[in-house]
TrEMBL record:
The chain crosses the membrane at residues 168-188, 200-218, 263-282, 382-404, 416-437, 444-466, 472-490, 511-530, 542-561. InterPro entries: MFS_dom, MFS_sugar_transport-like, MFS_trans_sf, Myo-inositol_Transporter, Sugar/inositol_transpt, Sugar_transporter_CS. The lineage of its organism: Eukaryota, Fungi, Dikarya, Ascomycota, Taphrinomycotina. PROSITE patterns: MFS, SUGAR_TRANSPORT_2. Its main location: membrane. It comes from Neolecta irregularis (strain DAH-3). GO terms for cellular component: membrane. GO terms for molecular function: transmembrane transporter activity. It is found in: Membrane. This is Putative polyol transporter 1. It is a multi-pass membrane protein.
Length: 623
């Protein structure tokens, strides 16, 4: 095998010279690393270190980081991190007395048998992230109803201007936050995170979102409204980039997907609240209705700003800043025992040290596209984020009231109520993904739901051919609701969860900025082009356009998006070290295997395995 697991795991290109390919000898010696030689194995960086060397490394670590009083605790934690599946047999395996108590073993057992038994501090952190998502969802959808009124107020419709100009101006105003996200909001996140930390960026982003909401509500021209919504994008971009990363860095591996995807569940709830606000203010005086709709989104950010500093800072961010005592205290608040906190801190420290050494003198933006391991994460996150928009979901989220009223012939009130029904379904059907995303997996959720989304979008478009008005509206509503129902547990929660965990720590901020900028750029494209696309293609053709993209998305996910469930953020380095061509060829072979077994009902052998973590534990003891 070319290269080794160590080099591959650290995302160092195999094409580099031997001197550049390997890290400095002192770092390897300090960490006691023994390369495995097989890039397909998800090798623990602590595997192969002799017990005496590991004890010495831990002592030196504690003494250098101001944790001298925790040497025994971190020694136990390091041995558990080195043998995560065999903690009950550590004394026999290591040939030394590790000293785990029955309480320690019970806590480690609970990680497997009772994975939802977590400290209250962790769940409080999840509540904070969920509140941020509610802010996001409301900011996205209150404009759905407001556009009905602000178009009239600012005379952005015939006979005051042509239909074409009206479509482009309304699309520009609606999409202004996402234009800002793509060109500015997401890209300022990395320096802001570096300066303020995860909590500080969350506070600032919600402060900006609240101020922009007030500005929207008092806008006195369409240009002023556009500017307010553009500034709103500064809050949306930095918040959507930071919150999933914050949750991913704090969550235990076993439930990381479920906790990170709370972002999407509660974004869906915020979307529903946005529709409720639209309906609530529908019968208010026209010039006041849209102002109340847009201005009402100031409330949720206030609560987030009040609660954010009661949460712990991301321990991984603190480690990156060399604030180890604070990182240990932070881990203590979100892990069940001090042993688990010490184990996780030491393992993160080892991986961060390797990553920091690997990135010396490197340009992070260039690394996104030039370093093989990171390039694969960049490609996979691009695919899932791009398809979150080009599956067509936000056409419905932002323009459903127009689709139901102008295309479907409903009254304003009935159209908004129909949109609210879609928002409720979007939230309800996102809830099952809390359980399936860490069991069924991110990739499988996408592969199952993309064909269904495509079918329902085709059927939505074709429904507009029905001549009878009542039958047409019933058919359109049913298929839009079914689309929401399959989107919510699949392409809804997966992209932000996936992108938050795909990148190594040293480049995670800029990687997440890339992913969210991709999402918001294509959100902007979709938002600004839908009115004109509908005019040019007819509503039937416009829905069919996005239905076709869902099928393309399925192919892209099948070949280029690896599974990431139930792996630590550090183990994911090894997943993305598999070359793209090798991964695509493997998926093609597995596809043929599945077709022969499921469709042709042939007798075939066991499915080929690509990663060592897919093999049963008892068969991995020699790995």
């Amino acid at each position: 095998m070319p290269g080794n697991a160590y080099d591959e795991g650290l995302a160092i290109p195999a094409s580099m010279t031997a001197e550049k390919q390997r890290l400095s000898d002192p770092v390897q010696k300090e960490l006691g690393f023994i390369p495995n030689g097989d890039p397909e194995l998800l090798e623990n960086p602590l595997v192969g270190i002799p017990a005496d060397a590991l004890r010495r490394n831990v002592r030196e670590f504690c003494e250098s980081k101001g944790l001298e009083d925790k040497i025994d605790l971190f020694t136990k934690g390091a041995f558990v991190a080195q043998n995560p599946d065999k903690y009950a047999e550590l004394d026999e395996i290591t040939g030394t007395i590790v000293g785990l108590t029955q309480e320690d073993i019970r806590a480690l057992d609970d990680e497997i048998n009772h994975k939802w038994r977590q400290p209250r501090e962790l769940y409080y952190l999840v509540v904070l992230c969920s509140m941020c998502a509610i802010v996001q969802g409301m900011d996205e959808t209150v404009v759905n109803g407001a556009q009905i009124f602000y178009k009239k107020h600012f005379k952005l419709e015939p006979p005051y201007m042509s239909q074409s100009k009206s479509s482009w101006l309304v699309g520009l105003i609606n999409s202004a936050p996402y234009l800002c996200c793509a060109v500015l909001g997401c890209w300022i996140t990395e320096p802001l995170n570096n300066l303020l930390g995860r909590r500080g960026v969350i506070f600032l982003s919600c402060l900006v979102a609240g101020a922009a909401s007030i500005w929207e509500g008092v806008a006195n021209s369409w240009v002023n409204l556009f500017m307010a919504r553009f500034v709103l994008g500064l809050g949306i971009g930095s918040k959507s980039t930071t919150v999933p990363v914050y949750a991913a860095e704090c969550a235990p591996t076993s439930i990381r997907g479920a906790l990170v995807m709370q972002w999407q569940v509660w974004t869906a709830f915020g979307i529903m609240l946005g529709y409720i606000v639209d309906v609530a203010f529908l019968n208010v005086r026209e010039n006041l209705a849209w102002r109340l709709m847009l201005g009402s989104t100031v409330i949720a950010p206030i609560f987030v700003c009040l609660q954010v500093y009661f949460c712990p800072e991301s321990p991984r961010w603190l480690i990156k800043k060399n604030r180890y005592r604070e990182a240990f205290d932070s881990f203590n608040r979100i892990r069940g025992t001090q042993l688990q906190a010490a184990r996780d801190l030491y393992l993160v420290h080892v991986n961060v040290k390797l990553e920091v050494e690997a990135q010396r003198g490197r340009n992070q933006l260039i690394d996104l596209f030039c370093v093989p391991r990171i390039r694969r994460a960049t490609l996979a996150s691009f695919i899932v984020m791009f398809m979150q928009q080009f599956c067509g979901v936000n056409v419905i989220a932002y323009y459903s009231s127009v689709i139901f009223t102008e295309d479907g012939g409903l009254s304003d009130q009935t159209g908004m109520l129909a949109s609210l029904g879609g928002g409720i379904i979007n939230w309800i059907f996102a809830i099952p993904a809390i359980y399936t995303i860490d069991t069924f997996g991110r990739r499988n959720l996408l592969l199952v739901t993309f064909p269904l989304m495509s079918a329902f979008l085709f059927l939505t478009g074709f429904s507009f051919f029905i001549e009878d008005k009542n039958s047409r509206l019933a058919s359109v509503a049913v298929f839009i609701y079914l689309f929401w129902a399959v989107y919510s547990p699949g392409e809804g929660p997966v992209p932000f969860t996936y992108s938050a965990e795909a990148f190594p720590l040293y480049i995670r901020d800029i990687g997440m900025s890339w992913a969210t900028a991709t999402c918001w750029f294509f959100n902007f494209v979709l938002s600004i082009t839908w009115p004109s696309l509908r005019d040019a293609f007819t509503v039937q053709g416009a829905f069919s356009w996005y239905a076709s993209w869902c099928l393309i998305g399925w192919v892209l996910v099948f070949f280029f998006v690896p599974e990431t469930k139930a792996l630590s953020l550090e183990e994911l380095d090894r997943v993305f070290s598999i070359p793209t061509t090798l991964h695509a060829a493997y998926q093609f072979r597995v596809g043929k295997w599945w077709f022969r077994k499921t469709i042709l009902r042939q007798r075939v052998g066991e499915k080929e395995r690509l990663y060592s973590h897919e093999v049963k534990p008892e068969s991995r003891r020699g790995v």
